[in-house]
Amino acid sequence: MLAIVLCFHSSGLASQLPDYPFIHTTGIAYVRVTPDIGEINFDVHVSDADAEKALTVATARMAEIKSVAAQQGTQEEDIVIRDLKKEMKKDAAGANAAEPIYQLSYSVVLKIRDLKNWQAIMSPLLKLSNIDKVEASFDSTVRDKIELDLSIEAVKDAQRKASGLVGSFGKHLGAVTAMSEGKLKNLSTAIGLVNEQSTFLPEVERRQAIGEDLFVIPPLKLQSSVDVIFRIK
């Protein structure tokens, strides 16, 4: 996005904008990164007319999950069991409608710190009964550094765009007077570049993986967007 404003004829508009010639640019930088850590999230659901049997199955499944993870070096603190629920419902459609059905459920988060073990953990997990809503996510232990580097590159991109455009008019780029990660929404709206509902979504953000194979470790798509206002001199 590029915008040059040299003068204003509307006092209402000018009151919302800088009172000097400026250029507003958006710099973008993105990168694909190989993740080095991941998480497996899933639910365990057990139903039975016998409450004790339901509890036994739920407990056994928990032990199996911990065993699978431990065999691949996952530490106890990286196995999180939460949201334990116990409910009693009646199966109105069943042959024994008067008998209650006991339902036990809990959520599990496995933090995988060595992705070489990913398939060795995922494969036996998917073979277990009572497992539902399996989801995988990945991250990088150096994400903070990558994001900082991307922000710096996005600023350089904004500067390159601004410098090239003002140079084509025989002008020079002045000092930075405003900067924001993301969009300077009020400025963009005020000079008609976007409306209140519009959203800037680069192509790298629109491409979302749907139905990814749970055995595949996809690259991370990280990006930074920086809006900058420079004086024109």
UniProtKB/TrEMBL annotation:
Source species, domain of life: Bacteria
TM region positions: none
Swiss-Prot/TrEMBL GO biological process terms: DNA damage response
One Pfam family matching this protein: SIMPL
Cited Gene3D superfamilies: Protein of unknown function (DUF541), domain 1, Protein of unknown function (DUF541), domain 2
InterPro entries reported in the protein's UniProt record: 26kDa_periplasmic_antigen, SIMPL/DUF541
Stated name of the protein: SIMPL domain-containing protein
Species in which this protein is naturally found: Undibacterium jejuense
Lineage: Bacteria, Pseudomonadati, Pseudomonadota, Betaproteobacteria, Burkholderiales
